[in-house]
Write a structure and sequence with these properties.
The protein is about 40% helix and about 15% strand. The protein is an alpha/beta fold. The chain starts with a strand and ends in a 7-residue tail after the last helix.
Length: about 325
């Protein structure tokens, strides 16, 4: 496993998204299975582990803390703040006093004395980003946080935050079937400012694994995707064309669909570190195999040409979730 830089933070070229072990993409995995998966990820060279207080909520941070406690100094933990979890109405809350409160809670759940990469989960329109960045700057000075990150932020917000304290990483959905950051300025500003980019959903929220089709039934009580247009039967049927094209390249590279999809993401920039998520050891092993898929310049050109004529059916998320995605503006 090679290493890459997210700002000043050195991590493995492929990270681990931990959310789906506990929530949002179906029933939670068995706790022991989830812990075993994260520890095997480290054994296979993964050093970046991504979680958030809202995953569960709370239980994913607890699981990550337990799994990584024996190897804490060998890994980098990223977590996030920004949602009002105590209030049943939910909503965003990035007030400085709130950040100071929840960072202590996350530190306890993660069984650590510092958070390597602390993201604002969603931009709070009611709190100037300068106030958020200033608070993180103070937490960094205190040693409780090491690096500052933003999730689903737009280019202007990224620039304003970076002017107060360097942003090490920006996290946004990015995959072969979701490439909006190539047009909305997010990738461009990251390149200009020396900020790393961490794609969540690099496997199309699971679609690019080839395991979903129009007959797939997602349980709305445990799976957020059940409410997304992209995962409705008609969209799943229409998007099978994506899998057909991806399969051709997987055959050509003697690799699996997820491996080619992840290799493509990693090949886009040397400062991109995707974080595919899984709670299953066999899927983890398949994902890590992507580091051995060497896509040439011609391969990348062929993939882009093949996908250029495909219109992806369905939007990223539902309308309610997209309201707090500033990068969509």
């Amino acid at each position: 496993m090679k290493m890459r830089k997210l700002g000043n933070l050195e991590v493995s070229q492929l990270g681990a998204g931990c959310m789906s072990i506990s929530a949002n993409y179906g029933p939670a995995a068995d706790r022991r299975q989830g812990i075993a998966t994260l520890r095997e990820a480290h054994d296979r060279g993964v050093t970046l582990f991504d979680t958030a207080e809202v995953y569960g909520p709370y239980v994913n941070e607890e699981l990550v803390g337990e799994a990584l406690a024996p190897i804490r100094d060998a890994v980098r933990i990223a977590t996030k703040f920004g949602f009002e979890l105590e209030d049943r109405a939910g909503g965003l809350n990035s007030r400085p006093d709130r950040i100071r409160k929840v960072v202590e809670q996350s530190l306890r759940r993660l069984r650590t004395d510092r958070i390597d990469l602390y993201y604002q989960h969603r931009v709070d329109p009611n709190v100037p980003i300068e106030d958020v960045a200033g608070t993180i700057k103070e937490l960094i000075a205190e040693g409780k946080v090491l690096q500052f990150g933003l999730s689903e932020a737009g280019p202007d917000t990224i620039r304003r935050a970076h002017a107060v304290h360097p942003v090490s990483a920006v996290q946004t959905e990015y995959s072969l079937m979701e490439r909006s950051v190539e047009q909305n300025g997010v990738l461009e500003v990251c390149g200009q400012l020396g900020i790393g980019f961490v794609p969540w959903g690099p496997l199309g929220m699971g679609f690019l694994t080839g395991t979903l089709d129009a007959r797939s039934k997602l349980d709305a009580s445990t799976d957020l995707r059940a409410g997304f247009d992209r995962f409705q039967p008609e969209a799943l049927a229409a998007n099978q064309r994506i899998l057909e094209v991806l399969s051709r390249f997987a055959t050509r590279e003697e690799a699996t669909l997820p491996q080619v999809a992840l290799a493509w993401v990693m090949a886009q920039r040397p400062w991109i570190v995707p974080i595919p998520g899984t709670g299953k050891v066999q899927h983890l092993r398949d994902n890590v195999g992507a580091i051995d898929v060497d896509l040439s310049v011609q391969d990348l050109r062929d993939i882009d040409d093949a996908f250029a004529g495909i219109q992806v059916a369905g939007g990223r998320m539902n309308a309610e979730q997209m309201k707090v995605v500033e990068a969509a503006d």
